[in-house]
Each structure stands twice: as C-alpha cells, then as structure tokens.
Amino acid sequence: MAAVELKGLGKRYGAAVAVEHVSLRIEHGQLVCLLGPSGCGKTTTLRLIAGFIEPSEGEILVGDKVLSSPARTVPPEGRNMSMIFQSYALWPHMTVAENVAYGLRIRKMDRATVEAKLKAILSTARLEALADRYPGELSGGQQQRVSLARAMVVEPETLLLDEPLSNLDTNLREEMRFEIRRLHDRYRYTTVYVTHDQAEAMTTADLIVVMNHGRIEQLGTPLEIYDQPRSAFVARFIGGSNILTGQALDAGHVEIAGARLVAEGRPLKAGETVALSVRQHEIDLLTAPPTDGVNVVKAIVSRGVFLGSSRDYTAVLGDKTEIRITTPPDRNVMPGAEVWLRMPARGCRALMGGNEA
Ligand code: ATP
C-alpha cells in the first residue's frame, strides 16, 4: 500500500513563490488536511499533487513511483486520483445515478459490476432516494454528497478535496464534516483535504498541516496542533489564542502589564522577551479583585458581544495590549468596567523564539 510523498516541493510564478520547501509523507489510508489562510499555498499544493500544474522544484511520489519532478510529469489522468471541487462540477443533464456511474462507465466496466458498485456507494452516501433526480433538483449538501460518491466510486488511490464544504451554510457544513469522516472511515482512501476552516480540519483530519506563506508551519495530529502550537501564527489560527508579550522573571514566570503570570511550555531565561499564548475561553473574567491575586492581571473592558451560547469580550491591559475573553452567556459586564483576568497556569503557554507575536 503506497504512501504519497512530497519532497522539497516548490512552485514559483515568475518572482512570486506560491509553495516552497514542502516535504510531507501521507501514509496509505490517512486523511490529511492542508490548513491555512487565503494565499498560503494550499490549493497550489493540491493542484501539484493532482498534476494540474508542474513543480518548479522537488518531487511527488506514490510509493516509489515518481509522479512529478521538474524533469518528468505523469499527466492527471495517469495518476489514479479523484479530485472534488468547491463547485461540485456535476453534469446538469445527468441524473444522480448517471453522474455517479460515469467514471465506472468510461473505465468500460461491465453492466453488472457498474450496477453493484453504484448501488453500494448510493447506499453509503445516503443517496438511494435521490438516484433519479437531476443536480438542479438537489440541495447544496445533497450535490456535495453526489460529488463525493462520484469521486469515491472509482476507488482512487488518492482522493483530493479542495474546500469541499465552502458553498454550504453553517449547519450543513457541520453535518458534512462528519459525513466526510464517516465515508473516509468506510473506504480509507488516502485523502488530502484543503480547507481554511480550523474546525473542519480538527473534526476530519488524522494529520493537520498548517501552512503559512507557502511553507509548512507545523504538522501534527489535531490534538498536538491545538495543545502544542509551535508559533504565534499557529496558536492564533487554531486555538483562538491571545498572544501576549512580556519579560521572563525566572524559569516559570513572566511579567505582563505589571502582573506576574505563571508560564508553561518551556523553561525560560530571566530577562528574555516571551510570547505567551492564552486561549480566550480559558481566561476567567472576574468583576471583583480576587483575594489571592495569583496569576491575575487587571484590565478595562472595551467591548462585549452577546453570541447566544457565550459572550465575547475585548479588554485592555495596563500596557495597552488588547486581550479577548470568551465567557458564559450570563457574565454581563459593561464597557468601561474594571475587571480581573485570571489566567490558568496551564493555559499560559510560552511559545518558542521570544518575539514571534
Ligand atoms: P485560497 O484559500 O484563497 O484558495 P490558497 O492557500 O489555496 O488560497 P494558493 O491558491 O495556493 O493559495 O496561492 C498561493 C499563492 O500563489 C498566492 O499568493 C497566489 O496569488 C499565488 N498564485 C497561485 N496561482 C497563481 C498563478 N497561476 N499565477 C500567479 N500566482 C499564483
């Protein structure tokens, strides 16, 4: 069973660098998410794997077979990969069943095999009742299930998904994340999934590759990426974290806006500048000064938004740093109020390399 391997992959457009030094091994049957903000190089990486574009440097291998290198490129149709696009790309004049079976028919499979495979995938993708409808008669979520079924039925070696849920509304997007994971668990195709939505990556991926400016910023399981962000970029992007900058007092304490806060994550050197990552929802917002005052910093609330299941506050510390806090919905504080923010010792994480904030 072959793994997909990217070795020192790069793509330049003139002087502009879209992807640079990307090395990654995707084991057979793994679902890997390429996650990052707009323009970070996710789609370019996916298109390189698909063979739609050629690399400026590096190689793509499946097992020990080279698919792409600057010297040689196997065309997309020779790669045994299926790609799913944001736009679904269904044929409007074909029914659901005809759309799904198309890939089998062009592979010249006999009628009985086509019927058996079609029946199985329509059942797994919960599309049996819709088999005779045309795409125009389906909801967005149903159309996306058809495009998934169409890509999976041909049993590709690798499945490539480019922002597959971005055209769906919030509820449907959440439902479809589980659907994609369920189908993946059933078929176990090696899958590369591009998204800018961290929740989508967290719920679907075995492995998340966080990209920034064309490079891999961090690679790890969803838990590793969430719990041990290596940089301020990853902490902000994944964990909804504040990044506070302070001065180390000793190996385990940092001074921020006049307060002494407990830091964890790595031993500190007294006097060094430290970037601390603190998750919004792990800060306790107190409206009276706590008697112990341990790990507490004073702030003034500048803004509060009611979000139904929570409230989102912005407060300003003594050194003018803005900090965001998520509280339960019943914690109602007016702008201008003085508050005390209790930082959990476990939540104040010292990031690598001091001044990354
Ligand atoms: P998005 O989420 O917005 O699709 P992305 O992370 O997928 O973004 P890419 O589409 O891979 O980003 O683009 C990476 C960088 O390469 C961008 O700065 C983009 O402008 C540039 N780029 C992509 N394709 C081309 C092209 N054909 N010509 C020139 N520059 C390009």
From TrEMBL:
GO molecular function: ABC-type transporter activity; ATP binding; ATP hydrolysis activity
InterPro entries hit by this protein: AAA+_ATPase, ABC_SmlMolc_Importer, ABC_transporter-like_ATP-bd, ABC_transporter-like_CS, Mo/tungstate-bd_C_term_dom, P-loop_NTPase, Transp-assoc_OB_typ2
Keywords: ATP-binding, Nucleotide-binding, Transport
Localization terms from the record: Cell inner membrane
Membrane topology according to the record: Peripheral membrane protein
Key word Nucleotide-binding present: yes
PROSITE patterns recorded: ABC_TRANSPORTER_1, ABC_TRANSPORTER_2
Positions of the ABC transporter domain: 4-238
Lineage top rank: taxon: Bacteria
A single cellular component GO annotation: ATP-binding cassette (ABC) transporter complex
TM segment ranges: none
Keyword field contains Nucleotide-binding: yes
Annotated family: Belongs to the ABC transporter superfamily.
Name of the protein described by the UniProt record: Iron(III) transport system ATP-binding protein
Classification of source organism: Bacteria, Pseudomonadati, Pseudomonadota, Alphaproteobacteria, Hyphomicrobiales
